User: Fold this.
Amino acid sequence: MLSNVERALDHMTKLNWVSVQLTLVCVCWPVDPMILVLWQACQLENHVGQYYTLPPAHIQTVFPHGLPARFQLQMKTFNEGCVMVRPPALEVISYLKRADYSKPALRFLFYGVKGSGKTMSLCHTVHYCSTQGWLVVHIPDAHLWVKNCKELLPSSYNGSRFDQPLQATNWLRNFRVTNEQFLSKIQTRHRYVWTKREFTEEGRPLGELVDQGITRVKSSSDVVGAVIKELRLQSGQPGGCFRMAVAVDGLNALWGRSTIKKEDKSPVSIEELTLMHNLRKLVKNDWCGGAIITALSQTGSLYTPKTAYLPHVLLGEEGFDRMDPFVPVTVSNYSEKEFESCYLYYQDRQWLQHPQSRTEEGKKELVFMSNRNPSALERLCAFL
Amino acid sequence: MAAHTTKICLSLGRINGPGFGQYASLNRATYATALSTSNFTGNKGGPDRGGRGAFVRRPRREPGEPRTEKMDSQQDWSAVYPSAASFRPGSVPLPVRMGYPVKGGVPSEKRGNLELIKIPNFLHLTPAAIKKHCEALKRKPPCKACFSLYKCFPVYLLDQMGTAFIPRGNRLTFSFLPSAFCTEWPAGLDSDGDLDKHLPIQIETTDYVSAGPSVRNPAARVVTLRVRLSSLNLDEHAREKMLKLLGDRYCKDTDILTITTDSCPLKQQNTDYAMYLLTVLYHEAWKTEAWESEMTRADRREYIWEDSASQQNVLDTLARMATPVPGEGVGEGVGEGEAPPREVLLARPEVQQYRDSVTRLKNEGESEGATLRYREAVKKLLSL
Assistant:
């Protein structure tokens, strides 16, 4: 590994990359495996503001459903996925590097104003975990599970709860894509009976369980519950072969309100949804051998004020008490250095077509108009 | 008298029986003469009353000469016009004329002149009269009342009185010139501390003075009572109950309870009501009702960390982390790999710091600073 790094460093100097102080964007294209190795090994503080490219193969496996929509559009336009290295993600990654995985799972929460880059930081951390060979349980947006549910079935396992087959099947499919390599290695520890004729024995590979959920749509929510239970039991065990990273975006949906209504028009509480019930069990820190990385989101949330962004406000009393103790990590707008980097990247990709945008005054205007907010800047530049 | 004459004539006519024809004309002449010799008093009683109504009018006196003729030029004018009164032509020895003149004429004289009566006059406020008012105000008063003056007299009076009123905080003290409305400041009450010790209750009232026909002002009934809670004898339970009863009327920074009453029409009634409210609050706070035993965590005024979900979470997490700190007084009953007992865990400094940060976060509301403090506390707790 060390020799690889040395070679990578050597390679880097040959490419004449200028250091961050001169704020030149280090975009590594065409995709160079050396750079990837370098990135894996030394994500240090002095790389703040620099961009790194996600290899296309990784994008398809790690992020079948995780990346923000606008970023996906940008990826399609630029033909590459470049993520900026920012302090919040670096901080969490540093904790993950130093953590003791025999202790209960650590919980991290990204919070910040709208558009400051919480989801991107989460994705960055998830990518790190997956490159380190962890099993990633990524719920891209918990808010999607509490609103606009077309089909709501009463649960066969527990009569008072409701299943959401479509959402569960979708998620299982993406989970299978992300964690292909673990599905054959992990074995079930319990026997699960789905119907009179269908059951999953003990000792069967997890992949079978997942396939069961994808093919038999009716029982998919319960399959999700079973998968979560198995993973919680087995991660961190002395004989266990994996570490688990749980990534939840829009964590405040777990303790908020839902807009789903039953047939008699009465609202469904979060506790009555099987998926959410199991998710709440997942984010408790009563298992070890992994980490729980979460992000708040006001944008998709229901019945929360627009200006709310602090953890206690969005999670509510109950949410805060359940997540306690967690490490809140603030994600703020771009610093000057980061803004420069982003601006140069757009310029480099020929994204800023307007002649005024390439001048100093134009840049100042962009700073003023976007207040260095990443999503605002991205939307502004899309017009230019 | 006329009737009497008529009767005599009738009797004369009857005596002269045989010579009837001769005297007939004489009798008739007697009648006619009798009527005509009487005094003619006009239409007495009116034509429809016939000879019945004899209405006697009071004899009319001629008006005497007006008072102005008898006035001395050195008289005391404030005796003529001691207060605001309308214009009396007979009392004002000035040849005033007012009104629009007839063509070729002059404005009408003061006698019977409605214009002069309609307009306001300041005949009661001549310089001599005002000097008398000022002398009266400067004199030492017989009454003991002490109250605050709000909308004071017209400006010229203030100049005459000088700066006798100097407000000190909510109370007015008087530096020099014992004036008509105040008593001397009691000796021995020199500092605010003395005042609070001996006179803990402050009652604030406002009096209004304005030029107009009526001295009443409905705003003068408002009474504000202020008292420090520390000067009341309250134990823990009583203080909590009192604070719950008071709500907004209590200021935490200054420890002052403010009761404002204006529901009664009179100031005296409002002060009595305010004192009554204070008494009732005090006695109710000391009582413990049966239903107070049903108080839940949500009913409490402030968040208490002890026995909360947060404390439970922390104890569970630390128990599972299970690394006894060297130097901690672990009891003999605890084995090597077991968690230290609860009290030991709670006594750790990082747990104390965590407790403080959570309590402050919940009680004072969330802010960036509070979240950062919480973060530091959690990092120390989880030894990141």
Observations:
- Residues 1-5, 11-38 of chain A have pLDDT under 50 and may be disordered.
- The longest strand of chain A covers residues 106-111.
